[in-house]
Fold:
Amino acid sequence: MDNDKLTQALALIAANADWKEAFIKHILNFEKDVATPDVDVREDVSGPLIDALFDDNQIMRKQISDGTIFEFLYRSKIARDFVMSDPVVPDHAWEPQTSRLLVALAKGVKNVVVGGAYFGDQTILIAKEVAKSGGVVFAFEPNNDQRKMLVKNAKLNQLSNIVPHSEGLWDNSTTTLTLIGYDSFAYPKAVDPSHDNVFQTITIDEHLRSISVDRLDLIMLDIEGAELRALKGGLRFLNQPIGQAPNIVFEVHRHFVDWSDGLENTELIRFLTDLDYKVFAVRDFNSNFNLSGKPIEIIPASDVYLEGPDHGFNMVAVKDISIFNTTGFRICHGVSPKLLRHKDPALHHPIGGL
Structure:
């Protein structure tokens, strides 16, 4: 095969907006037609074809069903799967169940801390919800390009209640960090202040104390292995009793958390349970996937199916589990939090099927 001709063909599609839209539509149909157990068609076949139509500095614009507008750089799986959403106008940008969970937990709250706000794929939805109760979102994002997109998206959606910060959440306010890796996969590492592209740490406690905030309702963390450090930096709030302590949504990943002895026995989960939190894994697609009408499925930390290659997923920690006693939630047992189209439906699909 002449690779130059293939490159030229993809460039022709990329240069014509109508062709590009039609190509994505046909690729989505192709995915459905060739769906094969144990073959991740999106990651191995169709995704790379769509990636070839875009470049890292290309700014995309997309609207979701509630009217929220996002602009974003085509630099990650988050961007690609949002572009490839089915339906074309989805009800979320990334991770359908986590996005719905965050909005549910944001109802009526006043103060939210987000670590890893990125371009606002979930932060904007939180901010829209807390704006109804006069709430504020303190959004920490040390990636300069993504933080600029976050600010732009706040303006696009006429939100004035997002306070962006360039610091990294940590267990002290004296460490200098840099990001290792590219964009959404980058993780923080302590370095000498003379290092290039550095940023400073801040604790949740110290930041909120400095602005005289004494109540924290919700924490959301997606900071590539720094979740435990960030939570230790918010101990003043996490120590508060039921009804006052914040609810927490956070990511765990096998690259950073060793769950060989069970998820419930990891340092991160033990830290939370020792503070009287009840911790659950959130069953979700690490993608943009239509789960409209499906309940948010959660699994007790001690009952999560963890087999498979290194992977990550989101978790939720609350002190009052009565918030899950509604028709919008379902507690599951012995299944995987990783929803995957190409894996065993009994373990990796929502209860009742896709």
Q: What stands out?
A: Residues 3-83 form one domain. DSSP finds twelve helices and 15 strands in the chain.
